[in-house]
Design goal:
This is Class I SAM-dependent methyltransferase. Residues 312-382 form the THUMP-like domain. With 383 residues, this protein is an alpha/beta fold. It is built from 13 helices and 18 strands. It has three domains: 2-67, no CATH class; 84-251, Vaccinia Virus protein VP39 (Rossmann fold, 3-Layer(aba) Sandwich); 268-382.
């Protein structure tokens, strides 16, 4: 079965496959790729090309279109749906690759989402026990100018002597779906025991306790979307916990410091980036921006003057007071609010049901924050 799959991929990457892709591009003529377009193109192309090749090329065209949000060269790659969905975005892969020195082994390389950033300009060994993944990883790395060595093997059997660093992305899905939190293949315990400096990709919700003493846990976000966590071994670690915000590469480190003041909200509300929250660096952000907390346990900060920082978005508070859902619709109408984005943190409530009850008609759009202030239910209307 793997032999047949690889033969189909080789056909797609060969001259006839290139001709089919070129014909699809010409047939779309800049229009979006839709189900109707696929049906029209498939009917026309099967008059010239083998039906199976056309079907494979149309599938890849759809995957490339979706993967374009992650990869600059998605149009040159060959993909699987699960592979591109689970792969790191290219911008994250490049950030991770920059932290790995010298000769690197990429274990559990999958379809090459990290390999495409690791391989160009250096010696890299890519390892996977799935021959289809290994073929795809090499093809995709070469689309980015890399020339990695490829090894079909269980990563636990690989001789890592002579490598300066290892990157490993253990599988967190099995044939039955997503594994339980903390489980992976190979297990995290095996990954942290590797005899060379290592970076281990983990889910953004990873427990801080899984990082052994001396290791760093880095939470990486692209703008405000938290993408992944990486565990760095002592040979690569710099701190205990860190939030990194891309594309700027801004980094905030969680360190012990003076307690942050807790008091009522001011004119502005700071909503920390999810990477900052997960890194446990909210108080570090408060000290950096000279802001205060509005509740001991809630990850919102406040200020009386506007704060500009890559680590949070700043909202202007136009109304603040104890949470009163019965009076909320009237309050929003008085403020000329016609649409709201609802942020709920630390306060229970059905956001969808609340949306349905508001029936707003004003001219302004606002953010409605459901939260707690000094452990009391609180609502803020922000622009």
């Amino acid at each position: 079965m793997d032999t047949d799959a690889i033969a189909r991929l080789e056909a797609l990457a060969g001259p006839q496959g290139e001709a089919v892709f070129a014909a699809i591009t010409a047939g779309l003529d800049g229009a979006p790729y839709t189900d109707a377009a696929a049906l029209r193109l498939g009917t026309a192309l099967r008059r010239t090309f083998p039906a199976e090749l056309v079907a494979e090329a149309l599938t890849q065209t759809a995957l490339r279109g979706r993967a374009a949000t992650k990869f600059d060269r998605a149009g040159e790659m060959l993909l699987t749906r699960a592979g591109w969905e689970q792969a790191s975005p290219e911008i994250v892969a490049r950030h991770t690759a920059a932290r790995l020195p010298g000769r690197v082994a990429d274990l559990c390389c999958g379809i090459g989402g990290d390999l495409l950033a690791l391989a160009p300009g250096r010696e890299v060994l890519a390892v996977d026990r799935d021959p289809v993944h290994l073929w795809l990883a090499e093809h995709n790395a070469r689309a980015y100018g890399g020339a990695p060595s490829m090894l079909l093997a269980d990563v636990r059997d690989v001789d890592l002597r002579g490598f300066d660093a290892v990157f490993v992305d253990p599988a967190r899905r099995s044939g039955g779906g997503r594994m339980r939190t903390g489980e992976s293949e190979p297990p995290l315990q095996w990954c942290v025991g590797l005899p060379v400096p290592v970076g281990i990709k983990a889910a953004p919700g990873v427990d801080h306790a899984v990082a052994p003493p001396g290791w760093e846990l880095e939470f990486v976000a692209v703008e405000r979307e938290l993408k992944e966590a990486v565990l760095w071994s002592p040979g690569l670690a710099g701190v205990r916990a860190r939030a990194t915000i891309l594309p700027g590469g801004d980094s905030l480190v969680a360190t012990p410091g003076e307690p942050v003041e807790v008091r009522d909200p001011g004119r502005f509300l700071l909503d920390p980036n999810p990477a900052v929250t997960r890194a446990g660096a909210v108080e570090d952000l408060a000290r950096l921006t000279r802001t205060w907390k509005i509740d001991e346990r809630i990850a919102f900060l406040s200020a009386d003057t506007r704060v500009t920082t890559p680590f949070a978005r700043t909202l202007e508070v136009i109304d603040s007071g104890p949470w009163d859902q019965k009076r909320l619709p009237r309050k929003l109408r008085d403020l000329d609010i016609g649409a709201v984005d609802i942020r709920r943190r630390g306060l229970a409530g059905d956001v969808d049901a609340l949306h349905r009850t508001l029936k707003l008609q004003g001219s302004r759009r606002a953010t409605l924050v459901m939260t707690r202030v000094r452990d009391k239910p609180w609502g803020l209307v922000c622009l």
